[in-house]
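Assemble and predict.
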Amino acid sequence: MATNFVIEGLKATIDNKEILKGVNLSMKGGEIHAIMGPNGTGKSTLASALMGHPKYEVTEGAVTLDGEDVLEMEVDERARAGLFLAMQYPSEISGVTNSDFLRSAINARREEGQEISLIKFIRQMEGSMKELDMNPEFAHRYLNEGFSGGEKKRNEILQMLMLDPKIVILDEIDSGLDIDALKIVAAGVNKMRSEDRGFLIITHYQRLLNYITPDYVHVMMQGRIVKSGGPELAARLEAEGYDWVKEELGITDETVGQEQEA
Amino acid sequence: MTLQTILPLSAEALKSLSQQKNEPAWLAESRLNALELASRLELPKPEKTKIDKWNLSDYGTYQQATSVASLQELPEAVRALVKEEEATNLLVQKDSGAVYSTLSDELKAQGVIFTDLETAAREHSDLVQAHLSSVVKNDENQLTALSAALWTGGAFLYVPKNVEVSVPLQAVFLTENADATFAPRVLVVADVNSSVTYVDNYISTGDAARLHNGIVEVIAKPGAKVRFATVHQLGLNTTDMSYRRAVTENDASIEWIIGEMNDGNTVTDTSTVLKGNGSTSDAKVIAVGSGSQRLNYTTRAIHFGKDSTSQMTTRAVMREEANAIINGITKIEHGATRSNGEQAEKVLMLSPKARGDANPILLIDEDDVMAGHAASVGQVNPEQVHYLMSRGISRAQAERLIIYGFLAPVVSDIPLEQLQTRLQELVERKVGQ
């Protein structure tokens, strides 16, 4: 069955402040969607709310993955159902090696007694790390501890490669990456493109989209998707900025839930 | 006004016990003096832990131990800890006395002595007399005095000059019968330029209330290297009061590896007196508290020697309603120039009712030194749990990974693989996930 991910009228608050004001988006396996928009418009909140971050409370709306209610699921269940979020600020966890962590994550998807063999796991991990041009010693380093910004992002992509998700959300994966790292990350994503897998790429730069061509581009402002189009929309945003969108829609302040600056 | 302590034993009874065991006259006299001291001395006052309501009088009575001829006859609880192929250098005490003791011919030939302390006092009287109670003094408090008066069984390890023992020597102290005195005393003497690793376990069976009052003394002569590993896993109703102290002479070193895995109330004090120039001490402690345990762990380094170095690391996990006071004391005396003392205590609390209190203390009477401390007390970070769960790992498993990760910097530094594994198992059992 082809992957089908649907967000309907999603509203979410943080500290009782509404950030998402009714997001609608539908994506299928094989598609790449990009969500663009200036800072403070709710893009990262959407990513966090979809993954079930405890700081955000979903107040209205529905999210389904292949017909299953995602919002009813615990965070780990969402992940096992096929959702993957490459985070903007991944946690550092001292004392837990990258490889122990990844092996636990893979085994969490398997039945007891069916755990991945150590040899097979190491082979997979080494292979994926090589693709991402990661130093093999990162397998034995503590999870994200002391990693540079770029190394953390690459480590997120490593997890994506190894966990084989159905829906991948990349939250600002391009921030803090130099151009070489960006190309490697993009190659990782492109390699993962398949009929069963959908991508939701959140970014406020066009630059990543030079390497990953999206099928759909959405603009987010004021906690909603306000405009959608094809790849040509991203190109125009890169060339002209966001002001024309604001003008067209009569928006003066595109942000949401932000303190007004004096 | 101080009340006279009610002693667990009369002087007459103690004297006749000593005679019955054929102990040398100096020891009999020392026991009687210590008993008299105990009647006048007060209990110690561990920082921030009130012990006056604790069960500290349950010494039971001396019960003669019956030796067994083979490993197979040892209680199951002991056999579970001892691998047969490694049991060539092993000492086992059950309740009041030693029941099993072996030492390889090779080590015997090198002059190594490893036996229970009672036997050592008879057979190596001068050696024992010269060192017993030289590190932890009988008159420090009521507990040290009572240990000196009442100790039974115990362990004595002597490594002669220049002898390097490559295999670990192991002891197991088991309390089965709650009515029997359980007060082993451990004395380790590492002579000039020798080296040795000693590992012991304290275990209990049954739930009846009892007390363990134990003292460990380590003397590392010039250039000696001693690695002392101990795991306490005493049961719910066993109160554990343990002093461990080492003296390091010039260029000597001590490495403490300590697993505090008891289920009952515990006060332990692990100290090194860095007497000699260039001597070093490294203490690694991991602890898990559960239930309603009251715990007080102190690590201490006292620098007298110049260029002496100490490291102390404690990592403690507290769950349920366990409450731990963790003290780290680095004392640098005047004249201990170019000394360096570092310490770090960290506590991870797993429930709202668990408590941990880390108290790093630096007492420095010399200018030309380096010293540092770090302490932290915290709960499992919800962001970390979320991150792990977002990869499909269950909440329980995520917390478990974080707990092991918290202990890992100490556990992974433990140089004995078997001990590392055992500590991991014990952590797993105590953390209960």
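The first helix of chain A runs from residue 43 to 51.
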